[in-house]
Design goal:
single chain, 11 strands, 16% helix, 37% strand, globular
């Protein structure tokens, strides 16, 4: 990431690390001197929380490129405990390709926005920013577990699970395979989240106990303080969808 003159501290810190490891930096092509990335640079320097969303196709579905970007930014700027693998969908036939987080799901029917014409009409307006939507079946459940593929993936202290429950439902959240709690969810058309914190979250589980009929799952974010990089990948996505 080559930075413009207003933030030389960022440029020097990143370029020194990249030069030492022969990594080609991401370039800022701004020629106006008013790059929107300057706000990102300022937040990094101030030690504030930063979220970067990377939208792409099959090239990043295995966390290719995004894993390196996440690791380097978290190492250079993340405040301890920092880390985590960012966003992972509730379910996807492609989860086995991703090396930074292990996802085990059952009872979900997953659709992505590239399959919009094949998606049930009731779900076509409910795709998440990730481009995925998952319809729950009876007892639908998911378990996420960060891997050791990159540094700081297991330095996760925050977990957030996103879903849509138009009707009343009951769900169960499990942290580290031992701490379980059920939540009664009142019906509402808004996207909701359940957020959990712990000194270390080694795994995060979610199960629809009751009220699955119109329940929609989106996914979870596993992160720490500092820099988060979310991988929003859809195979064959060219950006038009």
């Amino acid at each position: 990431m080559a930075c413009a003159a207003p933030v030389p501290e960022v440029r020097e810190r990143i370029e020194a690390e990249y030069e030492a490891q022969s990594v080609v930096p991401v370039e800022d092509f701004d020629t106006t001197g008013r790059s929107p990335l300057h706000a990102l640079y300022a937040k990094l320097l101030d030690g504030r929380d930063v979220r970067i969303a990377v939208l792409g196709d099959s090239f990043i579905e295995g966390d290719i490129l995004t894993a390196d970007l996440r690791e380097r930014l978290q190492t250079a700027f993340g405040r301890r405990p920092g880390g985590g693998a960012g966003f992972a969908p509730m379910a996807s036939p492609l989860t086995a390709f991703r090396r930074t987080i292990k996802t085990q799901s059952k009872g979900w029917t997953a659709y992505n926005i590239m399959q919009r014409k094949k998606t049930p009409e009731s779900l076509r307006q409910k795709f998440y920013v990730s481009g995925w939507v998952c319809q729950a079946g009876p007892g639908a459940s998911t378990r996420w577990e960060p891997t050791a593929y990159r540094r700081k993936l297991d330095d996760c202290t925050y977990g957030r699970i996103f879903f849509l429950s138009p009707d009343s439902s009951r769900v169960e959240v499990t942290v580290n395979d031992t701490l379980r709690q059920e939540f009664a969810v009142a019906g509402d058309p808004s996207v909701r989240q359940i957020a959990v914190t712990a000194p270390r979250i080694g795994s995060l589980g979610f199960r629809v106990v009751r009220g699955h009929e119109r329940f929609v799952g989106y996914g979870a974010v596993m992160e720490g303080e500092g820099v988060s990089v979310d991988n929003y990948s859809i195979r064959s996505n060219n950006g038009q969808a």
